[in-house]
Amino acid sequence: MLKLTPILLAVLYGLAMYRFSVWRLGRELDAKSTELTDPVLRVMCNQMAEALDLPKIKVHVYEIEPINGLAAPDGRIFITRGFMDRYKAGKVTAEELASVIAHELGHVALGHSRRRMIDFSGQNAARTAIAMVLNRFLPGIGVLVANGLMTLLAAGLSRKDEFEADAYASALLMKAGIGTGPQISLFKKLETLTGARGAATPAWVMSHPKTDQRIAAIVANEAKWLG
Predict the structure, then answer these.
(1) Cα separation, 62 vs 82, whole angstroms
(2) In terms of Cα–Cα distance, which of 182, 218, 193, 222 is closest to 98?
């Protein structure tokens, strides 16, 4: 039992840290967000709500500059002010922003936040167990190896979630009459908008799939569904 104590403590620590981060994020979102009121985007949200047989899809604007969408652990959907500013400037279309909202809805519908809580706790336990074993043979290095392995695992799980949310968004956009075109066009311009240079980072340590892989998956899904 004593041998398992560090692993059990790692699981409890992971759960506590996840809960704390959720609480802290919730407080910040409450303080720095307002409900989306843009009339064009509201029409598109209503189209998607109708496709999902929901009375309404509520979206909030998160008052930070980075360009991003967010599905909070409590199920709320957010678009950042940075994204809205690009939309107001004509650099992003309403349809493209609708594709972001559809993607975040996918994260909520597919339970990715709950899955990440379980994964985070499990990864802490696995990290501790691997480090304990490796430190017997590689003192001082076992922790580094364990951290590296868990980083690779977390990145792979995150990429899987992104592909799943993309597929959900594609299906929803098609059903709502918006189509996957805006989803694809946004991916093509996103690196320029954000200044990201994902091509310089090995795919196996990226938390998001490469753009061309995501576009290829969207095209393949649409062809399969229409075929």
Answers:
(1) 9
(2) 182
Q: Which residues pair with 34 in a beta bridge?
A: 61
**Beta bridge partner(s), residue 80:** 62
The token pair at 142 is 């076992």
Identify any residues that bridge with 77 across adjacent strands, giving them in sequence order. 59, 71
Predicted confidence band of residue 150 (pLDDT cuts 50, 70, 90): low
Place of tokens 């989306």: 36
CB-based burial of residue 199 (10 Å sphere; 0-12 exposed, 13-18 middle, 19+ buried)?
exposed
Model confidence pLDDT, tens digit, residues 166-201? 999 999 999 999 999 999 999 999 878 877 554 444
Q: What is the pLDDT of residue 10?
A: 59
Two structure tokens written together for 161: 């979630």
In sign, the C-alpha dihedral spanning 14, 16, 22, 25 is: negative
- In sign, the C-alpha dihedral spanning 87, 179, 106, 59 is positive
